[in-house]
Each structure stands twice: as structure tokens, then as C-alpha cells.
């Protein structure tokens, strides 16, 4: 029975050996080689695929190329990533170190040693192994590692079948060794984890220590910054105090000098009225020795001290201010401040006088002093804002007006000034809101309605602007600026006849404003009333003859009624005033072309193109002029330039097609 089992197992092993050998042979025959046709075919397919990707789209080649480059970059990245798995010698086709064959490797395993041990102990196993070796096909060489390996595996299969006890014992031994090795490895890893845990704990402690040190340094730095800030504030306060003392000292000095000069002048005047005999007696008395005279020296004149208080000086300063005697009024207010620096009115009035004297920064300082003494002094806030407006510090002015409005929200002037500051900052919506608040308090101010309309025009709210101009005209109908601006708004709404009527009202009030005549002419030209437009331009030129736009528009109107020679003269006047006026050069070229002066027209078009190289009209009209001169190739270049600038415009395409047709007819004739 055992012999049958051995025979059956032997036959199975031999069959497996034959199948393995055939598989090995097939593998060697079909393995791809980079130098064979198969490898080249794969490369060619990839190349064809890439070419097909290039042919997918013709509309956006840039986008497609970007995608291809990205694909190649990804492939290169994949190849580079696989590189570290091989040595340099392996990439060149030569092994860096000879490796063991499969047979030798298996012979060193525990299964091979088990077979050898079983063959030595049992003759039956030895005979089976020899039989398997004898059954091995002689067509394979002894160095064929795969054949020997299969033989050895067959032998091991027989041994494991005949001697299961030894096999199980060996497996148990190996299992024990493996388990022991796993346990040792696990212990080692656990020890490593313990070490890492200890290091982590130490790192945590160190991090906490560093964190505490950093927090301490930050606290110290914060204290230093606070200390520096306090010192800076103290220094700033000290500087402010020094400046205040300096200002007060200068005021004292100025007041004293003024009093000295006044006393001197008054003394001289009184001395002039003393009789000559008295002066002689006084002179004799002075020449006598003091001891002989027996009397002390007597002062002939002494100005009595005025018993005035701070309020008296304030009233005196206000009277002098109303009389326009600003220097004297300033001295009076400074005297009041010297007597009592806590009177806000004195500081406020001193600031007003400094504004009159154009000492604006000092005036702001006075208003600040008044506000510091009385935060509810809205006039000081208002005048401070006015001075800041004069200094073009609009944001600060708005802040000052806001403080004043918070104190007195029903003051018309405050809202008016607030709106003006908003307009200076081009915050038109907020400016309009402030004007509305002002008009809610006082609705009969035509100036506010007018300025509000200007702001509405800036926001392109033309109909609302016209309504606001109408409200202004209802109050003051003889203001030409309002009629003029109203006409401009009507022009924006394409209401040309109404605009002309508004311009004519402005002209009836003030006929010496060339802007009104100029805009009237432009609107008449829109209505194709060219003769009237030219007359209006002529009136504008009698007032302002150096405006190139008027000359240009006049030339356009003349060209519309086919007065091309006069149009050229008008264009030349515009070019004289502004040589870089593209429109004038182009218009001159058109007029010359109408007069069949094509060479001169080309020169004008060239000057226009030099100013504006991307001018579609100049290139197309230049091509037309060249075509008239039979310079077809140059004309074709001009048409191509025009098409490149505006490919969707049919005019250049039409002219180019006509030129091509003419060239074909000429070629047929020739």
C-alpha cells in the first residue's frame, strides 16, 4: 500500500516537473526585450497616441500643449520615483554582486536539510529520491536551476508524505523558533516604545519650560513696551506743555512790548505839550546836586495802571475785530488769556483773528484750546472744520463737522459744509444726503440745489439732476451756470432740442462764455444742423480761439456739408494748437481723400497712425488711398492691419475682397 502511494506521488511530481519546465521555457521565449520589434512597437504606439492628442483640437492649442507637458512631467516623476530601487550596475545591465541560484538557495533551506536527514535515516526515502532524480528528463542540463529545484521539491513532498512525524516535529520546532523570535522582537519594540515615551516626556517638560520662559520674556517685553509708551506719553505731554508755555511766553512778550511802545508814544506826546519854562526848570533841577537840593528825584510822568479784567479785554478785542483792526484785537484777546487762560471764548476769538491773518495752524491750536475748555462749543468745532477744509485735510474736517452736528443737528451751515467736504472726497452719495438735510432746514437756497444737481450728474442720475436744477432756477432764474449745466444733462438724455433751449437761456444771461457756444454747436451737429453748428463754433472761437477741440469739431461740420478745403484749414488750426491730436490728422486725411489728393491723405493718415497705432479707421482709409494710387500690395498690408485690429468688422474684409477681385482681373488681362 505504501508502495502504491509512493508511486502515485512520484507520478504527480514528475507531471508537475514537466509543466514547470514548459512554463519556464515559454517564459524565456516570450519575455519582452527593448531591442526587439515588440518593444519598438510599444514606443511607436505611444508616439502615435501623443500625436493624436495634438490633433484633438485646433481652437485652443495653448491649453492642449499645457496638458501634454503636464502629462510628460507626471510620467517623468513616476520613473524618477522608481529609481532608488536599483543600483547603478543593475541599470547598466550588469549585476553588482553575483546572486545564488534557485537550487542553491533551496538547498540551504530547512526542507532540503529535512530531505537529506530522512534519506540518511531511511533507505525507502533514499530510493524514492534516487528514482525521482533518475526520472528527471536528461534533455535538461545539470546546471538548470529550475529542473533541480523541481526535483528537490518532489523529494521533499515524498519525505513529508512518508515521514509525517518528523515533518510535524520540524514544523513545531520552527514554529517555536519563530514565536520566540517574534516575542523577542515585540519586547525590543516595547523597549523602544518605552524609550520613546521617556524621550517624549522629557521633550514635553522641555517644551513646557521653554513655553514658560517665552511667556516670561513676553511679559517682560510687554512691560517694557508699556513703560516706553508711558514715557512717550509723558514726553509728549511735556512737549505740549512746553509749547503752551512758549506760546504764552510769546504772548506775554508781545503784550509787554506793545504796552511799552504805547507808553513810550503816550509819554512823548505828553512831553510835547509841557511848557518850555517847566522843561527848563526841570533841567535846572536835574543839574543841581542831589545833596544840595535835599530832595529826591521826581519822575515828571507816570502812566496810571489800567484796572481792566479779562472780560473787558475780550469786549475790547471784539470791537476792534469788527472794525477790522486785527492786530490790536489780537493783543486784547491775548491780554485776556494772560489774565485768565480758562476762558474758551478768548481762545475761540483769537483763533478767528489768526484765520484772518492766514495763520491757519495757530488758529487750529486755538480752536483746540477752546474745545478742550468747552466740548460743547460747536462754533469752535465748525470753524476748526472750515480751516481744515482750507488746508485740504478733508477727512479731519468731516470729523470736526460731525462733532459740531452732534451738538447742534439743526444748523444749516454745518450740513452744507459737511456736504461740501464729502464732495471733495468724491463721496457723492453721502454728499447728496447731507445736502438733503440742509435743504430740509432751509429749502430756498439755490446754491445748494445747484450743487446737489452737480453731484447727481456725477452719479449719472441725469433726470434727478435736471429736477434739482429746475428747483434752483425757480429760486434764482438768472444764473447762467445752472442753465448751462441743465443743458448738459438734457444732452446726456439725448433731448437735444431741450438742451439747445437751455443753452440759449444761458447765452441770453451771459453771452461771453465760450463753453456754452461750443456745446450748443456740438448739439446742433448731432441734429445735423451743420450750418448753425458752424456759426455757434465761430462765436465760441471769437471768445476762445486757442481751443483745438472747437477747431476740430468745426472741421467735421464743414466736411459734412462738403466744404473740404475749409475743413482742412480748420483741422490745420487744431493741429497747430495740439500737434498730437489724432482726430484732427485723421479728419484732414479724409478731407484730402475727398479732394482726390491721395498722396497728401496718406501722409495725414501716417501721422494719425504714429499717434494711435491701433486705429482701425486710419489703417483702412490708408489702404483705400493706396488702392486709388494702384499700390495694391501696400494697400493689402493696410487692410490686413485693419482686420487684425478689428477682425469682426466687415468693411475692411469687403475692401480687401474688392482689391483681390481687381487683382485677379488685372492678371487675366495681362
Largest sheet: none
**From the alpha-carbon coordinates, what is the Rg to the nearest angstrom?**
55 Å
Q: What's the oligomerization state?
A: single chain
Our estimate of the beta-strand percent is under 5%
Instruction: Give the rounded overall mean pLDDT.
Output: 75
* Overall geometric form: flat
Q: Which structural class best describes the helix and strand composition?
A: mainly alpha
Unreliable spans are 19-102, 136-143, 285-305
Task: Explain the overall architecture.
The protein is mainly alpha-helical and 670 residues long. It is built from 32 helices and no strands. It has helices at 2-30, 37-54, 61-82, 88-91, 102-107, 110-121, 123-135, 145-162, 164-272, 276-287, 290-293, 310-322, 326-339, 344-356, 360-373, 378-390, 394-407, 412-424, 428-441, 446-458, 462-475, 480-492, 496-509, 514-526, 530-543, 548-560, 564-577, 582-594, 598-611, 616-628, 632-645, 650-669. The longest helix has 109 residues, at 164-272. It is flat. The relative contact order is 0.02. Residues 19-102, 136-143 and 285-305 have low confidence and may be disordered.
Which key features would you list for this structure?
80% helix, flat, 670 residues, mainly alpha
Give a short synopsis of this structure:
With 670 residues, this protein is mainly alpha-helical. Helices cover 80% and strands 0% of the residues.
What does the secondary structure layout of this molecule look like, with pairings?
Elements: H1 2-30, H2 37-54, H3 61-82, H4 88-91, H5 102-107, H6 110-121, H7 123-135, H8 145-162, H9 164-272, H10 276-287, H11 290-293, H12 310-322, H13 326-339, H14 344-356, H15 360-373, H16 378-390, H17 394-407, H18 412-424, H19 428-441, H20 446-458, H21 462-475, H22 480-492, H23 496-509, H24 514-526, H25 530-543, H26 548-560, H27 564-577, H28 582-594, H29 598-611, H30 616-628, H31 632-645, H32 650-669
Amino acid at each position: 500500500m505504501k508502495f502504491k502511494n509512493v508511486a502515485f506521488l512520484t507520478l504527480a511530481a514528475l507531471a508537475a516537473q514537466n509543466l514547470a519546465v514548459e512554463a519556464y521555457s515559454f517564459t524565456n521565449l516570450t519575455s519582452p526585450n527593448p531591442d526587439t520589434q515588440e518593444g519598438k512597437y510599444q514606443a511607436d504606439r505611444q508616439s502615435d497616441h501623443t500625436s493624436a492628442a495634438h490633433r484633438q483640437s485646433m481652437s485652443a492649442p495653448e491649453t492642449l500643449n499645457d496638458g501634454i507637458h503636464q502629462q510628460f512631467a507626471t510620467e517623468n516623476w513616476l520613473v524618477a520615483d522608481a529609481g532608488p530601487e536599483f543600483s547603478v550596475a543593475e541599470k547598466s545591465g550588469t549585476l553588482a554582486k553575483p546572486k545564488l541560484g534557485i537550487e542553491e538557495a533551496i538547498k540551504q533551506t530547512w526542507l532540503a536539510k529535512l530531505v537529506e536527514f530522512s534519506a540518511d535515516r531511511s533507505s525507502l526515502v533514499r530510493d524514492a529520491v534516487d528514482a525521482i532524480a533518475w526520472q528527471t528528463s536528461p534533455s535538461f542540463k545539470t546546471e538548470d536551476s529550475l529542473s533541480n529545484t523541481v526535483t528537490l521539491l518532489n523529494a521533499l513532498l515524498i519525505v513529508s508524505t512518508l515521514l509525517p512525524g518528523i515533518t510535524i516535529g520540524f514544523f513545531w520546532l520552527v514554529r517555536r523558533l519563530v514565536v520566540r523570535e517574534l516575542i523577542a522582537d515585540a519586547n525590543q519594540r516595547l523597549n523602544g516604545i518605552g524609550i520613546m515615551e521617556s524621550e517624549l516626556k522629557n521633550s514635553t517638560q522641555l517644551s513646557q519650560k521653554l513655553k514658560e520662559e517665552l511667556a516670561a520674556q513676553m511679559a517682560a517685553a510687554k512691560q517694557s513696551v508699556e513703560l516706553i509708551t508711558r514715557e512717550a506719553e509723558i514726553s509728549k505731554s511735556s512737549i505740549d506743555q512746553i509749547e503752551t508755555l512758549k506760546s504764552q511766553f510769546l504772548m506775554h512778550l508781545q503784550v509787554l512790548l506793545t504796552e511799552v511802545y504805547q507808553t513810550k508814544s503816550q509819554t512823548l506826546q505828553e512831553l510835547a505839550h509841557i511848557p518850555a519854562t517847566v522843561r527848563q526848570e526841570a533841567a535846572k533841577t536835574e543839574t543841581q546836586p542831589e545833596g544840595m537840593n535835599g530832595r529826591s528825584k521826581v519822575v515828571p510822568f507816570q502812566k496810571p495802571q489800567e484796572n481792566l479784567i479779562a472780560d473787558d479785554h475780550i469786549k475790547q478785542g471784539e470791537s476792534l475785530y469788527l472794525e477790522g483792526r486785527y492786530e490790536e484785537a489780537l493783543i486784547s484777546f491775548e491780554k485776556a488769556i494772560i489774565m485768565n487762560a480758562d476762558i474758551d471764548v478768548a481762545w475761540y476769538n483769537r483763533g478767528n483773528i489768526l484765520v484772518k491773518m492766514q495763520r491757519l495752524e495757530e488758529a487750529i491750536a486755538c480752536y483746540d484750546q477752546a474745545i478742550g475748555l468747552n466740548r460743547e462749543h460747536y462754533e469752535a468745532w465748525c470753524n476748526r472744520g472750515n480751516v481744515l477744509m482750507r488746508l485740504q485735510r478733508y477727512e479731519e474736517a468731516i470729523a470736526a463737522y460731525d462733532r459740531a452736528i452732534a451738538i447742534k443737528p439743526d444748523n444749516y451751515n454745518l450740513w452744507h459744509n459737511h456736504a461740501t467736504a464729502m464732495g471733495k472726497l468724491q463721496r457723492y452719495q453721502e454728499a447728496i444726503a447731507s445736502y438733503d438735510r440742509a435743504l430740509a432746514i432751509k429749502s430756498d437756497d439755490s446754491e445748494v440745489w445747484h450743487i446737489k444737481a452737480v453731484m447727481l450728474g456725477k452719479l449719472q442720475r441725469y433726470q434727478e439732476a435736471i429736477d434739482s436744477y429746475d428747483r434752483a432756477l425757480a429760486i434764482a432764474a438768472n444764473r447762467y451756470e445752472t442753465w448751462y449745466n441743465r443743458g448738459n444733462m438734457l444732452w446726456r438724455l439725448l433731448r437735444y432740442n431741450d438742451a439747445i433751449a437751455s443753452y440759449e437761456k444761458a447765452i441770453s444771461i451771459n453771452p461771453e462764455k465760450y463753453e456754452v457756444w461750443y456745446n450748443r454747436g456740438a448739439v446742433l451737429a448731432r441734429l445735423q444742423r451743420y450750418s448753425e453748428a458752424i456759426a455757434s463754433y465761430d462765436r465760441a472761437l471769437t471768445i476762445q480761439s486757442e481751443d483745438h477741440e472747437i477747431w476740430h469739431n468745426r472741421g467735421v461740420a464743414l466736411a459734412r456739408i462738403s466744404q473740404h478745403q475749409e475743413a482742412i484749414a480748420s483741422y490745420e488750426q487744431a493741429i497747430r494748437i495740439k500737434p498730437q491730436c489724432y482726430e484732427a490728422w485723421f479728419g484732414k486725411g479724409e478731407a484730402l481723400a475727398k479732394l482726390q489728393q491721395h498722396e497728401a491723405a496718406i501722409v495725414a493718415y501716417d501721422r494719425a497712425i504714429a499717434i494711435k497705432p491701433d486705429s482701425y479707421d486710419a489703417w483702412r482709409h490708408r489702404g483705400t488711398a493706396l488702392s486709388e494710387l494702384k499700390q495694391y500690395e501696400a494697400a493689402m498690408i493696410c487692410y490686413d492691419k485693419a482686420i487684425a485690429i478689428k477682425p469682426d468688422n466687415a468693411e475692411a474684409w469687403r475692401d480687401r475682397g474688392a482689391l483681390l477681385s481687381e487683382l485677379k482681373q488685372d492678371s487675366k488681362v495681362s
